[in-house]
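batch_manifest entry 22 of 60
target: L-2,4-diaminobutyric acid acetyltransferase
source organism: Streptomyces humidus
requested by: lab member K.T.
priority: normal
notes from requester: please return tokens only, no post-processing; we will run our own comparison against the previous entry in this batch. if the run fails, retry once and flag.
--- input ---
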Amino acid sequence: MWRIARDTGVLDLNSAYSYLLWCRDFSRTSVVARDVLGHPIGFITGYIRPDHPQTLVVWQVAVDRAHRGRGLAGRMLEDLAVRGVGAGARRVETTITPGNEPSHRLFVSFAQRRGARIEREVLFGEDLFPTAHGHEPEILYRIGPLA
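--- output ---
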């Protein structure tokens, strides 16, 4: 997962250790897609918001470069949504930077397939990120209600 995230060139890269912990502690709200040999080719990390237990937060979505353009991200998101709804989730939240058009398309098409509304607002402005290279604002997408 760490390698896939790194190779996207756009995701904030977390430590390899954090991805291992994520798989252990949040496996019910995350997805790892594997090829026929069992190697990871894509993943979605997510969690249920502790103060809003009907909200599934999608944190990172990544697909290995060799497997992009085949609808894998959409299938993983649908799988995660079905499991989330089964566990009581009624909405999905995610953040997307303005320049991340593939993620924007992924979540807009997800909402359209489910007949759900999308509300958007700035969650974290760029002034909150302590980086010399700058960081675009993170736009919160609230999608729901989920059927």
